Amino acid sequence: MALLKFLMCSVFVLTFTARAAHMSPSPPVKAAYWPSWFSESFPPSAINTALFTHIYYAFLMPSNRSFTFDLPETTKAELSQFTSSLRRKNPPVKTLFSIGGGGSDSDLFARIASNAKSRQIFIDSSINTARKFGFDGLDIDWEFPKDTTEMEYFADLITQWRKTIDREAKLTSRQPLLLSAAVYYASEFRTYGEPRSFPAAAISKSLDWINVMCFDYHGSWDTTATGAHAALFDPHTNLSSHYGLRSWISAGVPRSKMVMGIPLYGKSWTLKDPYVHGVGAPAVGVGPGDQGILTYVQVKEFNEKTKATIVYDIRTVSAYSYINTSWVGYDDVKSTTTKVEFAQANDLRGYFFWALSYDSGDWEISTHASKAWVDDQY
Fold first, then answer.
1. GO MF annotations for this entry (predicted)?
2. pLDDT classification of 218: cutoffs 50, 70, 90
3. Cα angle 182, 248, 199; round to 5
4. What domain count does the chain have?
5. Could you read off the pLDDT of 82-108 as tens digits, one per residue?
6. Is residue 284 part of a domain?
7. How many CB atoms lie under 10 A from the CB of residue 306?
8. For residue 42, is it within any domain?
9. At what angle do helices 106-113 and 116-132 cross, to 10 degrees?
10. CB atoms inside a 10 Å sphere around CB 2
11. Of 108, 222, 334, 338, which has the most beta carbons under 10 Å away?
12. Which pLDDT score, from 0 to 100, does residue 376 have?
């Protein structure tokens, strides 16, 4: 096992002596997104802030007419409760609100980002909203700029955003707001439209960090075979976190501005043959859960209720369980802590989870992840 960890942590070809380069290391990011639609069943007051440094409110969207955040009173009250609750916690955590999210209107972001005037209206409103409700920063989850032109718009947006944040901080003598972005697992797209790459130079200069979505490599769109949907390694394809993170580094984004995403949910399939059950085994459809998706809580319940066989897959650094023709792939304590150790060994800024409330009631995954990141190693 020690040899395995050494080999895993040595996969990236380092271009410098990492420890010597960290004279003034950036504080680590141990983050998670809080889905606001679970506010009644999982209020922010229920968050164990000892396990995190940053919590994202997910999600807000600007008006498709004014490009400003014209929020209903109920949302305003929820935002105030979110930040005030987390400030009162011991320890307190930094708060950001995330704009967009999966399934949001990508065309709206393109319209906003396409010219300086609309960008400024959106940016000013985002900063005013953050200040009004006591947030420490902003996060954009634009999924995804669909071509090279929209990637240029994205670069223009974050560049103008950073300048405005810095100007506002100077004028008000306040700490500059944080600015981050949730991004595709790799720096370049080879699917979902024309080939294109994220603007690495603008990202490196304008963002505090990027949240690299190292998950959803497999799912209900392909029911022919099971898959490790957040594989750290894949011996057969580029659908892996190792490939994606390496592509961001090769593009020129500093490791200190990369935060690795880890899912608190699994994906399921129905096996074609119950006796053939490895990662990549033939399948005929989705399995248990909502369209083949189970939260970590639900995975544990499924395993306990069905007495499913649990397997750790060393090749992909993932876990799966199976019973009869039901198959579920997910991250357990072992795979999560290995990923966290991998991220730290390769000098990334930290990690984040999607999403809070998906963990077990005793914060099993989050606790082990927090312990795996050695804060005083420098």
1. chitin binding; chitinase activity
2. very high
3. 70
4. 1
5. 999 999 999 999 999 999 999 999 999
6. no
7. 15
8. yes
9. 110
10. 6
11. 338
12. 62
Q: Residue 6 above 70 pLDDT?
A: no
- Give the separation between CA 235 and CA 16, rounded to whole angstroms: 27
Residue 104: other Cβ atoms inside 10 A? 16
pLDDT tens digits along 137-170: 999 999 999 999 999 999 999 999 999 999 999 9
Question: Which one from 73, 78, 143, 150 is the annotated catalytic residue?
Answer: 143
Q: Say whether the peptide bond before residue 144 is cis (omega within 30 degrees of 0).
A: yes
243: domain range? 2-19+27-264+332-372
143 in active site: yes
Any domain includes 78: yes
Query: What are the Cα distances from residue 52, in Å, to 34, 95, 149?
Result: 12, 11, 36
Structure tokens, 305: 């209720």
Query: What is the rounded distance in angstroms from the CA atom of residue 156 to the CA atom of residue 138?
Result: 16
Beta carbons within 10 angstroms of residue 135's beta carbon: 24
Q: Output the domain CATH number for residue 58.
A: 3.20.20.80
Report how far residue 261's alpha carbon sits from residue 257's, in angstroms, rounded to the nearest whole number: 13
What's residue 191's pLDDT?
A: 80
How high is the mean pLDDT of the chain? Answer: 93
Phi, psi of 255 (to 5 degrees): -60, -30
Specify the residue for token string 């100077």: 170
Query: Residue 2 above 70 pLDDT?
Result: no
